[in-house]
Each structure stands twice: as structure tokens, then as C-alpha cells.
């Protein structure tokens, strides 16, 4: 069964009886074998009725044909408004379209691909604005221009840098990712990264929560990890006696001569 939309109001009797006309209209756009049983008629308004027919076209389970008819007041001639194929509640439909920037995942970019950043991206602010304390009085245009010239003289080079929002978004993404404390690797680790000798500290506000792993034998080598992350390659990890490999036996020297070997 297909769940069809319901509307209040009693359908016009003349239009509701025009099932054969509605089917003929559908057959103008569909093959005879694609139109199934009549599913009912719904009132769309005064002297406006929509008929529904089951769709049996291969690949369209749960869809139905919809034909809308109307007539003038006291008129006997029926007019076709539209005929469409619509999905029911259980129909298979394409997923909602998502802009490509929202679909991108780390690793999707290939060599030569370009991903421009919008001018008003909230993650970035002009470099000369960085360091402004919200509690300080706002800088006027002359003061900002002076700061910009100083930044250029110092060779900062970057036109824009991370905003407070950009830093917070990165921190949330890293903390919830595989380098955070909730990953399976971290939950089974003997200790946390904050005490590991392979942790490289970073500067700025993110240094209070994150660092970079520099252990070439670790899964996270070269990646940002939270200080409460961890893995089995911690610099201070020690194997218990039962976990240590068994010692190899001493070498056996073969003292048999060729003559003695033949006598065996």
C-alpha cells in the first residue's frame, strides 16, 4: 500500500467519477504496463480533484501517477491540469543534494585540484586583526592601517590567518577524530600523550590541548593528537615479564665427522 496525501473536503462528484479519463491521460505519458490500480481521488480545492494510480514501472516501487482534473462552475467539460509521477512515503528516491564543499572529506583532493576559500569565510580573519583583545577599545581605520604596515614590514606574509571560530572548529574536529581520547587506540593505551617523550609541543592557544606525534613507529606519526590521546608506542611503556619474547636457546655445535655420520 502507498500512503497518499490526504486533504480535507469532499471531492467534486463529476471529477471524482472521471477515473477512465484520468487513466487515459496517464497512458499518454506511460506505457500500458506501467499503470496499475486506481488508488483513489483527493479534493485539491473547489472543483479540483487529483486521481492517483499505482506505478508498476520497474525500478519505481512505492511511486504513483497523479492526474489533476478541474472544471468550470456548472460546466461539463473536464480540463486536465497536470499529470506527474510522484514518490510515496516508501518510495526509493535520490538522497537530498548536498553542496560539494560539504561533501568533501580529508583525502578527497587530488594533485592539481583547487578548493578556493570564500572571502567571508568565518574561519579566517585578516592577519593584522590577530591579537585584538575584545576587551580593548576598537581600533580606528588609521590604527588598523598602521598595524597592517607593521605586519608587512615584519614579513608576516599571510593575508589571512585563523579566526577564533576557525581555531575552535579545528579543535573540535581534532578532539573528536582519531587523534582524540575516544579513539579505540587511545582507550587501550597504557598512558597518555602528555607524558610521552615523542610529543612535540605546538604554540598558541591550541598548545593547551594538542601536540604533534613524532614517533616514527606510531600510527599517529606526524599527526595532531590531543594530550589525553595515547597509543601503545608511548616512550615510557615497558613490557611485563610474561610479555617479553622468549630467549633463544644456545647454539648447537655439530661435532660429527663424515665417517661417524655414515655409521648412524
From TrEMBL:
InterPro entries: DUF3027 (IPR021391). Pfam families: DUF3027. This is DUF3027 domain-containing protein. The lineage of its organism: Bacteria, Bacillati, Actinomycetota, Actinomycetes, Propionibacteriales.
Amino acid at each position: 500500500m502507498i500512503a497518499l496525501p490526504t486533504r480535507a473536503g469532499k471531492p467534486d462528484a463529476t471529477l471524482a467519477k472521471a477515473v477512465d479519463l484520468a487513466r487515459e491521460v496517464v497512458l499518454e505519458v506511460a506505457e500500458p504496463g506501467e499503470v496499475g490500480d486506481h488508488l483513489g481521488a483527493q479534493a485539491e480545492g473547489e472543483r479540483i480533484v487529483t486521481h492517483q494510480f499505482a506505478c508498476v514501472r520497474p525500478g519505481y516501487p512505492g511511486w504513483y501517477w497523479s492526474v489533476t482534473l478541474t472544471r468550470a462552475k456548472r460546466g461539463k467539460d473536464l480540463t486536465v491540469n497536470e499529470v506527474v509521477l510522484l514518490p510515496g512515503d516508501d518510495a526509493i528516491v535520490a538522497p537530498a543534494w548536498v553542496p560539494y564543499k560539504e561533501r568533501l572529506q580529508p583525502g578527497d583532493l587530488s594533485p592539481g585540484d583547487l578548493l578556493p576559500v570564500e572571502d567571508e569565510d568565518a574561519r579566517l580573519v585578516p592577519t593584522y586583526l590577530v591579537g585584538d583583545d575584545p576587551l580593548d577599545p576598537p581600533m580606528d581605520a588609521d590604527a588598523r592601517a598602521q598595524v597592517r604596515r607593521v605586519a608587512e614590514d615584519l614579513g608576516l606574509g599571510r593575508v589571512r590567518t585563523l579566526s577564533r571560530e576557525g581555531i575552535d572548529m579545528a579543535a573540535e574536529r581534532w578532539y573528536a577524530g582519531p587523534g582524540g581520547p575516544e579513539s579505540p587506540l587511545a582507550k587501550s593505551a597504557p598512558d597518555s600523550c602528555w607524558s610521552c617523550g615523542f610529543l612535540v609541543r605546538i604554540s598558541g592557544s591550541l598548545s593547551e590541548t594538542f601536540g604533534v606525534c613524532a614517533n616514527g613507529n606510531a600510527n599517529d606519526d606526524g599527526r595532531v593528537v590531543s594530550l589525553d590521546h595515547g597509543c601503545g608506542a608511548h616512550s615510557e611503556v615497558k613490557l611485563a615479564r610474561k610479555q617479553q619474547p622468549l630467549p633463544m636457546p644456545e647454539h648447537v655445535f655439530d661435532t660429527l665427522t663424515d665417517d661417524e655420520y655414515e655409521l648412524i
